[in-house]
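thoughts on my protein:
***
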Amino acid sequence: MANAVELRDTHPADSPEHERGVRELRAIREEVLLWTDFLEQTLTGTGTRGQDRVMLLAAAYLEGAPLELCIKAATAFGSRDESVARRYREGRSPRRRLRDVGVDITSNDTAAFHSRPDLALAAIRMDWHHWADERSETSDWLTRITGPDGVAKAWAEQIGSRLLDLSTTEADPPFFTILDTWTTTSPDEARLRIVTKLITRAADTEELARAAHKQLLDWARKPNVPQRKVVAWACEGRYGARWPHMALVRLRHILATDDEATRIAATALTAHAAKSAEGLKQVVETIETWLEKYPTHLAAPEPSSRSPTPRTASWTA
């Protein structure tokens, strides 16, 4: 615990060390408070597989959201049959149902976990682990409620953050699959900025770093403009500052095509060069290497000896 507290308190809030300290403290608290035992007794011990489980799952992903939104999200799980939606409002009231599975209802009628800190993430983890045969259905549900017309589209960042935390410990993690879906089905700038923030956090997370680097490289190579924009923004931001060499490799792939992402990549490259003499040297040396190694690359010089200027001229500034 002392080591975790030191990591959290002696490093900047956006650093991977701080993030690791927070995760370790959360894990310690879950173990001390026995949330896993509580959840097993509350849900699996009584054989509950229906409304109670899904209501808890909705509240866990949408902690802080209005209760009515949690109910709507829960009714969207699985079948869209009206009778399924009706069952969530029959029998015990939604408030009683949520309280019975450990959720607090605030005076503003929102779902909370004040009396059981970190129970939300513990519930998400246990659900993913215990009902492994329903992982695809859970992923489809999350994709549906966060889609362009989804009831929880405004909560995409929090849901993505919970998926990131889940994916650090569980097999068959859903985090990158959901991000990939978001960049193809919800390509508006606000959503893409959320994806950029989340994948940068993943790169800072020891358990997900390798997968995050690979995902950014895959997106940089693809023709999908929204995905390429995410990579360019990441390389322009904290990802590029921490891993400049990896960022430059991904920018080279983006610069091969002239589109919106290319212009962001050019800005990222010139910004990196302008930060310091070392940054300028690194960019110049990298470009020289590109021109030597990839003479036929679309961002390389024109074949005409009279025109030595690279085709993507803005990034040579």
Summary: Residues 16-33 form the longest helix (18 residues). Residues 35 and 119 are 6 Å apart (CA to CA).
